[in-house]
Amino acid sequence: MTALHDWSLTPSAAVALQRELAPRLILEDRIEAVETIAGVDIGFEAAGEITRAAVVVLAWPSLEYLEQHVHRELTRMPYVPGLLSFREVPAALAAFDALQPRPDLIMVDGQGIAHPRRLGVASHLGLWLDLPTIGIAKSRLCGKHGAVPEARGEWTPLAHRDETIGAVLRSRQGVKPVFVSPGHRLSLPTAVDWVVRCLGRTKLPEPTRLADRLASRRGRVG
DNA sequence: GCGACAG
DNA sequence: ATCTTGTCGC
């Protein structure tokens, strides 16, 4: 019952594809007027056999709820550090198909270019949809950084092989920082700005926080 | 060779 | 990610 799909690549083939795609990323600000922002996250059911992709769309600048959508499908790949997009992006794309006007900006739960080959899940999704994306991860995949300032909104750079790949942001005082990195079509400063602007009084920005709840079915969103 | 390792 | 109870703090 193995559902083969063009996303089901062997690890080495997936790595080769990442190396081919990373150079195509645009890390300059190519983002239009923002009126809607989407948050995406993936959750699992039935001991991981079912993948559940959730997308929540909010209006900017009110952050008012506009719509949500959930797509469920059989899980196609196991979790392998560095290859997360092959496990989650297919389901996320299906969830996005239900959105009529596409969002102007997307916040993804995971890394953008803060990845060994600069192609985290946020970058891969952004490249595929050709939309601006930002990666917001709750923990580090690669790279190193110094002490993170205690004040909310402050950050310290995340570096990897002499490159600045992201920001370790104190999104909420007294709480572990989040790792922000550009996904596609925007710069690091711009990515951090958007995350800070979408922050409520919680650790995660509203789009991602709501998508998280919907994906893990931990409460109502709309 | 020995760790580290998004979700 | 997911499995899980109470508990500390704004």
TrEMBL record:
Organism: Franzmannia pantelleriensis
Keywords for the protein's UniProt record, in alphabetical order: Cytoplasm, DNA damage, DNA repair, Endonuclease, Hydrolase, Magnesium, Metal-binding, Nuclease
Cofactors: Mg(2+)
Job of this protein: DNA repair enzyme involved in the repair of deaminated bases. Selectively cleaves double-stranded DNA at the second phosphodiester bond 3' to a deoxyinosine leaving behind the intact lesion on the nicked DNA.
Localization of this protein: Cytoplasm
Enzyme class, broadest EC rank: hydrolase
Main localization, broad class: cytoplasm
Binding site for Mg(2+): D41, D109
GO cellular component, one term: cytoplasm
Keyword Cytoplasm among UniProt keywords: yes
Full protein name: Endonuclease V
Any one Gene Ontology BP term: DNA repair
Family to which the UniProt record says this protein belongs: Belongs to the endonuclease V family.
Site (Interaction with target DNA): Y79
GO MF annotations in UniProt: deoxyribonuclease V activity; magnesium ion binding; RNA endonuclease activity producing 5'-phosphomonoesters, hydrolytic mechanism; single-stranded RNA binding
Catalysed reactions, semicolon-separated: Endonucleolytic cleavage at apurinic or apyrimidinic sites to products with a 5'-phosphate
Alphabetized InterPro entries for the sequence: Endonuclease-V
Listed EC numbers: 3.1.21.7
